[in-house]
Every structure is written in structure tokens, then in C-alpha cells.
Design a protein that fits this description.
49% helix; alpha/beta; Spore Coat Polysaccharide Biosynthesis Protein SpsA, Chain A; 7-stranded mixed β-sheet
Length: 323
């Protein structure tokens, strides 16, 4: 395959947690595909604190295959941590991520590689059109989750959380994956300026060994992570734009309500009409609450602005090239 500044065509990053039954079969399958396509490649296997024999199998395979690199965590940190370390070690022109449970097919990699190298995409995301999961617990929640993700991120992907993705090397070197943000790498990349993102329908296979490591809580956590990421990307470097505006608006609403209540009482009192004391009206206390909340929001924006201006990342920009 064609070579450039990168030493290899492909870096395949696999996050592993208690998958000892599938590892040898997965590696044999990847070898077969890489050999058929005559790719130069490295297989980076990140053991995310497995409690079975996964790491021992990885060490055994790496001893006889120079393509395999292994990273082992002392405990389970999560998929984002595994991908972060895999991305940091990746040397290939194109970086591919996939799961170790044999549900992702390595046969998809050559075409995804071509779409990056020849078609010029920054990211090619897999789209499991025909899922082999339970329709009630996986398919329906996944559709709702992806519809929400498309609305908030503006990225038209049908399967944002698909583990099978291909990236231009520059993409993974310019983003930081942390927490549970592995679900939103396309959004992280978009915010970093890599907006040539597309998807490819991929074959999805039924799990052959073991059981899924993710439960229904991932959809709730994923939604909360998405809101956090959206807020940080939108207001992270300009918190006063959100908190300051919201605080001023809340303060003005509270102030106008308080003034209106007082004026209304004075008018009724001046005309000799029955009136209620200002402090007897629940609306007055709501107005006071709005005034206090408005001040607190404004102060939160001011403090956020001060912290943002002191951040070492305040002038961090991804430069495409210089001449």
C-alpha cells in the first residue's frame, strides 16, 4: 500500500475487557484481511483491566507476531481510557477502532481505509443497519439515542456509538478522549475542525462468546455526557455568554415583577381601593428568588470567565498547515 510520513498503513486499536474466548479468532481474522489487502499494520490491543486470561493470551500472541502491541491497565478504567492510550501509541496513516467481541467485521476495514485515503474523509463511522441485538433493550433505545445525538451535534450519523470507525491519524492526535466520551468522538473531532465525517453500512454479527458489558444505564449516561459535551464545546471558552445572559434575564424579570407589584399596591392605595400588602403576595417572593438567582448566575459566569482566561488551553488551536 502507498506510504507517506506514517510508518504503517493502519493502526487497529482494540479495547478488551474479559474477552479471552474471542481474542485468537479475532487476531486470525484481522491477519487474514490485512494479508489479502497487503497492508502494513499494527494491532494495538488494550486490556482494560480484564479479570480473565485476556492479557496472558495477548502476551502469548505478541511474542510470535511483531504486528501486535499490548497495553494492560492495572484496573478497569473504561473504553475511553483504552482508546486514549491506543490513539497515543498509533503510528498508522489510518487508525481503526473495533470491539473484541467479534460483532465487528475486519472485512470492512479495507473499504473504510480507502474512503479515508482516496475520498478524503476525516472519519468513517460504521452503521449497523441490521443489528443482531435484542430489539427492545438495544435497538429501540439506540434509535432514540442516535436521533437525539444527531439533533444536538448536527452530525448526520445513524449510529454514533458504533465501535467500528476509521480515522485519519491527525484526528486522533488532536482530540482528547476522556470519561465516557468515546461515544462522541465524531463530535469531538468536529469541534477540533475535522468535519469531513461520513458513515458506511457495516455487517453486524451476533455475539459469539460471553455477554455484553454495557447495560441500559449507558443510554442515560450517554445523554448526560452529550449535554455536557455540547455545553463545554459551545460555552467552554465563553461562559459569560451563557451564565451572564441568563443571569441578567432572570434578574430583570424578577426586578420588573417586584416593581410591578409595588406600583400596583401604591395605585390601589392612592385610589382608596382594597389592597394586599406586598409581603402577603407569593409572587413577590418569586420575584425576590429570581433576583437572587440572577445575581448568582451572573457571578457564576464571571468566575467561569476568570477561570477560562487562566486556563493553559485558552489559546489552543488546531493548525492545519503553515507555509
Amino acid at each position: 500500500m502507498a506510504q507517506d510520513a506514517h510508518s504503517k498503513d493502519l493502526s487497529i486499536v482494540v479495547s478488551i475487557y474479559n474477552e479471552e474466548e474471542s481474542l485468537r479468532e479475532l487476531v486470525d481474522w484481522i491477519r487474514k484481511v490485512m494479508s489479502a489487502g497487503r497492508f502494513t499494520y499494527e494491532l494495538i490491543m488494550v486490556d482494560d483491566g480484564s479479570r480473565d486470561g485476556s492479557w496472558g493470551i495477548i502476551k502469548e500472541m505478541a511474542a510470535s507476531d511483531s504486528h501486535i502491541k499490548g497495553i494492560s491497565f492495572r484496573r478497569n478504567y473504561g473504553k475511553s481510557a483504552a482508546l486514549y492510550c491506543g490513539f497515543r501509541a498509533a503510528e498508522g496513516r489510518v487508525v481503526v477502532t473495533m470491539d473484541a467481541d467479534l460483532q465487528d467485521s475486519p472485512e470492512e476495514i479495507p473499504e473504510m481505509y480507502r474512503m479515508i485515503v482516496e475520498d478524503g474523509y476525516d472519519i468513517v463511522s460504521g452503521w449497523k443497519q441490521h443489528r443482531k441485538d435484542n430489539a427492545l433493550t438495544k435497538n429501540l433505545p439506540s434509535k432514540l439515542y442516535n436521533a437525539t445525538a444527531r439533533k444536538i451535534t448536527g452530525i448526520r450519523l445513524h449510529d454514533m456509538n458504533c465501535g467500528l470507525k476509521a480515522y485519519r491519524n491527525e484526528v486522533v492526535k488532536n482530540i482528547e478522549v476522556y470519561g465516557e466520551m468515546h461515544r462522541y468522538i465524531p463530535y469531538l473531532a468536529k469541534n477540533a475542525g475535522f468535519d469531513r465525517i461520513t458513515e458506511k453500512p457495516v455487517h453486524h454479527q451476533k455475539r459469539k462468546y460471553g455477554k455484553s458489558k454495557f447495560g441500559m444505564e449507558r443510554f442515560v449516561n450517554g445523554f448526560l455526557d452529550l449535554l455536557s459535551l455540547w455545553f463545554l464545546s459551545t460555552f467552554g471558552k465563553k461562559p459569560m455568554h451563557f451564565f451572564g445572559f441568563t443571569g441578567l434575564l432572570t434578574f430583570l424579570i424578577g426586578g420588573l415583577l417586584a416593581v410591578w407589584i409595588i406600583i400596583e399596591k401604591l395605585i390601589q392605595q392612592g385610589h382608596g381601593l382594597p389592597y394586599r400588602a406586598v409581603t402577603d403576595q407569593p409572587l413577590f417572593y418569586l420575584a425576590l428568588a429570581a433576583l437572587v438567582i440572577g445575581v448568582l448566575l451572573f457571578l457564576a459566569g464571571f468566575l467561569g470567565e476568570m477561570i477560562s482566561r487562566s486556563s493553559p488551553e485558552r489559546n489552543h488551536y488546531n493548525i492545519k498547515e503553515e507555509i
